[in-house]
Design a protein that fits this description.
CATH superfamily: Isochorismatase-like
Shape: globular
Oligomer: single chain
Order of helices and strands: EHEHEHEHEHEH
Radius of gyration: 17 Å
Strand content: 15-25%
Number of helices: 6
Number of strands: 6
Number of domains: 1
Length: about 220
Amino acid sequence: MVTVSKGKRALIEGRPALIVIDIQAGTFDETIKNRAIAHMPGYAARMARSRLAIDKARTLDIPVVFIQEVHRPDLIDFGRELDGDEDIHCLEDNPNTEIAVAQTGFRPNDYLIRKRRYSAFFGTDFEILLKGLKAETLLLCGGLTDVCVHYTFVDGHQSDYHCRVIEDCVAGSSEDAHEHALRAMEYLQAGARRSLDEVLDAMETYRLAEPAAVEQRG
C-alpha cells in the first residue's frame, strides 16, 4: 500500500472553538510533593501559557470551552482509571480539582464540561455544545498530552472535527510520552501540531475573514 502525502490543511476550517483541557488548581500548587499523576518538566508553565490563547479567543469572540476532570469522593466512578500509573486524583471535594481561575481567567458564565473519563466526549454533553456552537475546528490546549488531550483529539477526529493541538500549550506525563502523543495526533490529521504563534495568527485571520464568510453563507 502506498501512502500519498496530503500536506497540511488550513489551521482553522469553518468555525473554531478553543478547548481548554484539565487546567486545574492543583497544577499550580507547589506544596504538592508527590503527585497522583506524573508531570513532565515545565508542565505548569505550559499550562499557564494557554492563557494567551484563551485571552485571544475571547477578544475575537471565538468560543472557549473548559474541560474539568472530576471524581466522586467514594471513588465509584474511577472504573479502570487507577489500574495503571495514576493514583486517586481530581476528587470533587478537593479545592485543587477546581479550574485554575487565576491562571486561565475562567469566568462563572464560561462553558464548562465536567468529565469522569479521559475524553471530553465520553459520557458528557460536550458534542451537544459543539453542535450548538457550530464548531468545526477544535483547538486543544491543556493536559495531559498523552492522556486527556490525546483521547479528546481522537474522539474529535472520529466525530469528523478538524483537530489541532497547540503543542507549546500542552504537557504530558513525561517528555517522551508528550512527544509520542503529538506524533500520534499528527498521524491522524496532517498539520495537527501547531505552535501558539501559529494559532494566534490563525485566530486573527479567521476573525478578519469571518464577516465575508457569513455573507457568503447567507
